[in-house]
Design a protein that fits this description.
The protein is α/β, with parallel strands linked by helices. It is built from 12 helices and 12 strands. It has helices spanning 14-23, 37-57, 70-84, 100-111, 129-138, 159-169, 190-193, 242-279, 304-313, 333-337, 342-345, 359-376; strands at 2-3, 64-67, 91-95, 115-119, 143-147, 174-178, 197-201, 212-216, 283-284, 294-298, 316-317, 348-352. Helix 5 packs parallel to helix 6 (159-169).
């Protein structure tokens, strides 16, 4: 099997599997809210994990909220900030290439009377900074909402330029960042990045599904999304899962430890595939400076879903659009907003890599593409 669909999800690492088994032992199974010694031990372990995750992300433990996924984190951040901070204004600036978790929140805000300004993006997937400056100059803005690494193309946000603009033009404006696809693949230091809220997902970094993190900078006030018993300082009610928090911690620690080496290896894989696929008249849709973990490519003569299922015959797994939108069978809105014509976008396939992928897999992938064209394509 060749698994090139790591932006959709990753498989749990051996260390994550091991720690999950450890956390299932009786001594770790107490409710962190209980007053007896099992509860106290679980609460201490949970707080220690929170502190370790914070340290790995360049934050304080008080700024880390464990969630079920990045979608919950995005909803909590965007909707929670806007509902809590009426005096900050009713205006948000974003793009139409955000993940659906953000876009659906923005659409709901619009229905509720908020104004959302969508910046155009270039062929490189980056927002137009001149338009951002203009939009921030015209009227008071409460929130900027962006994605650090686009999940379909790997386009990297010019975050330093955006924070500089915010600091110069409107220092009270807050920044929410979707950093799901960046985590474990590029350095993350939240305090140095100068953002106010940020979402992460565990299953994208070889943890398990069902665990995410929301960062909320100390001093930033948001309304909680889930109400109940007041766990996590009232910001996310519900019995805390030490198992899931620990799985996230271990996965993040592994990702940080291996980041430099895996970046080098994945860059070589990406460069090789770009070169070989271009030789075969495929069109590379990811920008040249994209994060190498994602490679979006359109195959001549093959619609996306056709190529996906052809590859599946050979036990090779890729994606068409984002996994959150794939069952709708629509052409990628991200590619269309980035200026890719509909016909090309309809042929687009996303390859996404993790530290477990190898150059041998990339070479076998190219051989398989050749075989698919020989067997199934009507060549020009």
């Amino acid at each position: 099997m060749i698994y090139f669909d790591n932006s959709a999800t990753t498989f749990p690492s051996d260390r994550v599997r091991t720690v999950i088994n450890d956390m299932l032992r009786d001594e770790f199974s107490g409710n962190p809210g209980s007053l007896h010694k099992l509860g106290v031990a679980a609460d201490k372990a949970y707080c220690d994990t929170q502190a370790k995750v914070a340290d790995l992300l360049g934050a304080y433990g008080s700024e880390i909220i464990f969630t079920s996924c990045a979608t919950e984190s995005a909803n909590t951040a965007i909707r929670g900030f806007m509902s809590r901070n009426g005096r900050a204004g009713k205006r948000v600036i974003s793009t139409r290439t955000e993940h659906k978790a953000s876009l659906e929140c923005l659409a709901l805000l619009e229905k509720s009377g908020y104004e959302v300004v969508y910046l155009p993006v270039g062929t490189d997937g980056k927002p137009d900074l001149a338009e951002l400056e203009k939009a921030m100059t015209v009227e008071k803005t409460a929130l900027l909402c962006f994605t650090l690494v686009n999940n379909e193309t790997g386009s990297v946000l010019p975050l330093d330029q955006i924070t500089a603009l915010r600091n110069r033009l409107s220092p009270d404006t807050k920044i929410y960042l979707d950093a799901v696809q960046a985590l474990g693949k590029m350095p993350i230091n939240l305090h140095k990045m100068n953002v106010d809220m940020c979402s992460f997902s565990g299953h994208k970094i070889h943890s398990v599904k069902g665990n995410g993190v929301l960062y909320v900078k100390d001093g930033v006030r948001i309304d909680p999304f889930i109400l109940g018993g007041g766990q996590q300082k009232g910001m996310r009610s519900g019995t805390q899962s030490l198992l899931l928090a620990k799985a996230f911690e271990v996965a993040l620690e592994e990702a940080v430890e291996t980041m430099d080496g895996s970046h080098e290896d994945i860059s070589k894989i990406n460069e090789y595939l770009r070169k070989e696929l271009t030789k075969r008249d495929a069109r590379i849709l990811s920008p040249d400076d994209a994060l190498p973990n994602v490679l979006n490519v359109a195959f001549e003569g093959f619609e996306s879903e056709t190529m996906l299922h052809c590859l599946e015959i050979y036990d090779i797994f890729v994606s068409t659009v984002s996994a959150c939108s794939s069952k709708a069978k629509k052409v990628s809105y991200v590619l269309l907003e980035s200026g890719v014509d509909r016909k090309t976008a309809a042929n687009a396939v996303r390859l996404s890599f993790s530290r477990y992928n190898t150059m041998k897999e990339a070479e076998d992938f190219i051989k398989t593409v050749d075989d698919i064209y020989d067997k199934f394509a009507v060549m020009k």
